[in-house]
Amino acid sequence: MERRQHDDGTVTLSSGSGVFTFATVAPGVLLVTVRGSDTGQFGTAVLDELHTAIQRFGRLALFIDARETVVTSDKHAVPGLWAAWLTEHADSLDGVHVLADDRFTSLVLDITKHVSRLRGLRVHRDLAPFEERLRAFAPAAALGTGG
Q: How far apart are CA 126 and CA 10, in angstroms?
C-alpha cells in the first residue's frame, strides 16, 4: 500500500485496484473519494486516516463518494470493519453521507448502517442530495458530474 500526501493536504492511499482520496473541504468536514475495490488490502489504513481527522478536529462530518467503487459479495470483512469503526466513533461524527449509485453497493451500505446502528449514516443514490448536504457543511465544496 502507498500513502501520498499532496501539497494541498489531500491524502491518497492506493493499493492494487483501490484508491482512497481524503480531502478536508472545511474544518471538520472530510470528503473521501473511493475508486476501484477494497478487498481488505488497505487493512486499517483507511480507518486510521479517518481517526486522524477526528483527532485533528474533534468532530467530523464524513462524506464518501463511492460511485466508482466495486463491492463484491464475498468480502464481508471490509463492511464489518466499517460497521465496527462507525459504532466506536459514533459520538465523534456529525453525520456520514455516502454517495453510491450502484444497487449492490447501496445494499451493502444499508446493511452496514443496520449493523452499526449509526443513525447519522445516510446512503444517497443521486448526486444532487449528496452535494446539497455537503454544501450545508462546506459551502464551497462540490463534486460535479465527474466525481
A: 25
DSSP 92: G
CATH architecture of 2-6+11-137: 2-Layer Sandwich (3.30)
**Total length of the chain:** 147
Give whole-number Cα distances, 65 to 102, 137, 143, 147, in Å.
12, 15, 9, 7
Q: How far apart are CA 5 and CA 13, in angstroms?
A: 9
pLDDT mean values, one per 10 residues, the chain (147 residues) = 95 94 96 88 91 96 90 59 84 92 65 62 89 94 56
Report the alpha-carbon distance of residue 130 to residue 75 in Å, rounded: 26
pLDDT at site 73 = 46
Task: Evaluate whether 17 touches 37 at the Cβ level (below 8 Å).
Answer: yes
